[in-house]
Amino acid sequence: MYDLFYLFIFIITFLRISRNKMYFKTRTHTCGELRESNIGENVVLNGWVDTRRDLGGLIFIDLRDRYGITQIVFEPNFSKEAHETASSLRSEFVISIEGKVRKRPEGTENPAISTGQIDVMVNKLIILNEAKTPPFPIKDDIDTSEDVRLKYRYLDLRRPALQQNILMRHKMYQLVRKYFDGNDFVEVETPVLMKSTPEGARDYLVPSRLHKGKFYALPQSPQQYKQLLMVSGLDRYFQIVKCFRDEDLRADRQPEFTQIDVEMSFIDQENIFEMVEGLMNILFREILNQKLSTPLPRLTFDQALEKYGSDKPDLRFNLEMVTLNHVFENTAFKVFQDHIKNKGIITGMVAPGCGDYTRNQLDIITDFVKKLGAGGLIWMRVKDNDLEAPIAKFLTDEEKKNLIQSLKAKPGDLIFILSGSRLKALSIMGSLRLEMARRLDLIKPDTAPKLLWVTDFPLFEWDEQTKRFYAMHHPFTSPRLEDVEYMETDPAKVRARAYDLVLNGTEIAGGSIRIHNADLQAKMFKTLGITEEEAEHKFGFLMNAFKFGAPPHGGIAFGFDRMAMIFAGESSIREVIAFPKTASAVSIMDDAPSTVDENQLKELHIKIR
RNA sequence: GGGGUCGUAGUUCAGUUGGUUAGAACGCCUGCCUGUCACGCAGGAAGUCGAGGGUUCGAGUCCCUUCGGCCCCGCCA
After folding, report:
1. What pairs with residue A556 in β-bridges?
2. pLDDT higher than threshold 70 for residue A12
3. What's the CA A151/C1' B19 distance, rounded, in angstroms?
4. Can you give the distance from the CA of residue A437 to the C1' of nucleotide B24 in angstroms?
5. What is d(CA A312, CA A501) in angstroms, rounded to the nearest whole number?
6. Are strands A94-103 and A68-74 parallel, antiparallel or unpaired?
């Protein structure tokens, strides 16, 4: 009975399809597949019309699919009918053809494409779908504004370059899954609708229909769940997971992004490093075709800040910064004097060979640092036995000599000096360091990638506005055990068992060893000014879980999109995300976010104000 | 929230001190063309100069407001 029914449906469908001339044969090959070895074969190809070269009596079509391009040829004396139909073909028409693979005539081969030795003589053409002229050409290296590309993202994704990025990303997913599975990690999905936690980034909220006035939050990361999974005894967890943060966007920041989330039990920092380096080895080999030498270099947070002015230093070029406080210990120069007295810092950097920068160029650079909040920029041209600078007259010969020596400056170089509060002066010089690298073109396309660990982050961060300490990483991060004693006396001095993985000046992963001991966690909350009641209210379930036997544990989370961006050689994360949002968190293609029906709001007990 | 930059044909851009009918290239359309691959040749169509307001005899151009893209600071690991 049912069989008859399905047979009926099948016949109806078949009739409808054939009446619409939609019937076509399954392809025998892809458009990137045919070679000289296929010459003489009858083949079926399906794909898009890439380009059309209509010579009148002879029509060439480049047929494109994800796998490549094959040239197909329409000749009237081979198939008059196909040739006639072919004259109506236009860019991006979807077609199906049958034909015979031929060697191209001597001298007409196209070495630029892998199928360039052959073409396919078509004897049957079916137009599966016509297409409007696309708003931009479907080819690489196009010069089209990004908003147009985003509006027609499905067309943008037809371009080979973007498809390559998506395919590379796919390969990364597979390598990651295989690696962690091979190391006994369990992939677990954690909830997307969860409890809002006020610490950290702003949450995306989801109103509850069933519970008036209550909200879920989308996860900023599955942090607490993965720690609970350790309490559950899963021992090794990973997940490739979407995370959400309602903060302003950047070239490397989207409101929704993907993490590789990892957590392990009964381990210390070194075990995490080893596991991560194993993964990076594989990714470097399989994606970049490069051998990564491990163990990776490490810098402490303090070292990174002093030498590179950043907690995510780009080590692809040198331009190291040098702290100069010792040079100016007894200086008569008032600005330096004050900063030394106020526990500030004087930091210097040499711009090699830039001694010929004009006053105008130096003004532009001064303006650059001023925009970042610097009071001013001190510059000095290094001469054969002297320094030429506006402030030179305030310095003793001894100071000049020590300065040149400390910076290892040479005649013809330019010296930059910034002074001020430690964190600010160093990070502004760090920005100037990156700016000078751009100006001096120190990062070439073939410059080797540089991967390193940054360790020993401060546990706390002082916030001037609210006059309290915040957890730099998150409130479950363990202090270094030898620093626990300072938690009450001098919190700023406490270093965390936290670490970042930095690739080419971009943070691609960050993690920590967690607190698994209730007493230490209580101490942590106390330093953060979180009362017991607050802690109970915000993190009670986690605290409670820890009372039932929490193993020592720690983990790390990778910014998957950023990693993909760098591997793909792109400078925006949007180039490796299929459907990204603009800098104002809008999706131009589908017009999200959008207004909703008043009834929807009513159901959710929400009123717009 | 702040700073920078851009917005002119489908696309990428030019457009002088405010001056007649806003141009180019590519793309698109029509015709011709049997070995092209950036096909070629001939012809053609195509504009809310982001939007709104103002100054002016006259605004793509000057002024104000506003919207949008991109980058950066703040924010965010």
Report:
1. A262, A511
2. no
3. 39
4. 37
5. 8
6. unpaired
- Whether the Cβ atoms of residue A91 and residue A130 lie closer than 8 Å to each other: no
- DSSP one-letter code for A288: I
What ipTM is given for this predicted complex?
0.93
Q: A587 CA to B50 C1', in Å?
A: 19
CA of A360 to C1' of B17 (A): 28
Q: What is the DSSP string of A337-356?
A: HHHHHTT-EEEEEEETT-TT
> In sequence order, which ranges of A528-569 are alpha helices (DSSP H)?
532-546, 560-567
Instruction: Give the pLDDT of residue A4.
Output: 55
Please write down the HEC assignment for all residues of A453-488: EEECCECEEEECCCCEEEECCCCCECECHHHCCHHH
Q: Answer whether residue A19 shows pLDDT above 50.
A: no
Closest alpha carbon to C1' of B26, residue: A137
- Percentage of residues of chain A with pLDDT beyond 70: 96
Q: Which nucleotide does the CA of A107 lie closest to, via C1'?
A: B35
Q: Compute CA distances A73 → A24, A54, A69, A421, A458, whole Å.
A: 19, 10, 13, 71, 67
| C1' (B60) to CA (A136) span, angstroms | 25
| A25 Ramachandran zone, left/alpha/beta (phi>0; psi -120 to 50) | beta
Which residue's alpha carbon is at the shortest distance from the C1' of B41? A55
Show which positions of strand B are touched by protein (CB under 7 A): 1, 3, 10-13, 26-29, 32-40, 68-77
Shortest CA–C1' contact from A58: which nucleotide? B34
Residue A55 (CA) to nucleotide B36 (C1'), in angstroms, measures 7
pLDDT at position A2 over 60: no
Sequence-distant (6+) residues with CB within 8 A of A57 are A75, A76
pLDDT of residue A538: 83
* Closest-lying nucleotide for A110 based on CA to C1': B37
Is residue A239 within 8 Å of A261, Cβ to Cβ?
A: yes
Residue nearest to nucleotide B69 (CA to C1'): A147
Beta-strand runs (E) in A7-93: 42-54, 59-65, 68-74
| Tokens 């989330």 -> residue | A261
For residue A289, pLDDT beyond 50: yes
CA of residue A138 to C1' of nucleotide B44, angstroms = 25
Radius of gyration of chain A (CA): 31
* Model confidence, pTM: 0.92
Whether A533 has a pLDDT exceeding 70, the answer reads yes
A358 vs A72, residue with greater confidence: A72
- pLDDT (0 to 100) of residue A11: 56
A123, A103 Cβ separation under 8 angstroms: no
Q: Using the CA of A424, give the nucleotide whose C1' is nearest.
A: B73
Least confident window among A81-90, A132-141, A465-474, A543-552: A465-474
Measured CA A598 to C1' B26 distance, in angstroms: 47
- Which nucleotide is nearest to A55 if distance is taken from CA to C1'? B33
* B3: residue with closest CA to C1': A371
Give the pLDDT of residue A32.
Answer: 96
User: What does the pLDDT look like over A47-61, one tens digit per residue?
Assistant: 999 999 999 999 999
